[in-house]
């Protein structure tokens, strides 16, 4: 249930501040 949007950086799994870390993109 991860929403792929501006929340993620290009080619990175980093999330913007204030965003819940998506377990789907979690390493």
UniProtKB/TrEMBL annotation:
Regions of biased composition (Basic and acidic residues) lie at 1-15
Tell me which domain of life the UniProt entry assigns to the organism this sequence originates from.
Eukaryota
Stretches for region Disordered: 1-27
Q: What is this protein called?
A: Uncharacterized protein
* Organism in which the protein naturally occurs: Nymphaea colorata (pocket water lily)
What taxonomic lineage is listed for the species of origin? Answer: Eukaryota, Viridiplantae, Streptophyta, Embryophyta, Tracheophyta
């Amino acid at each position: 249930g991860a929403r792929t949007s501006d929340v993620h950086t290009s080619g990175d799994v980093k999330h913007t501040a204030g965003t819940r870390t998506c377990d789907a993109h979690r390493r």
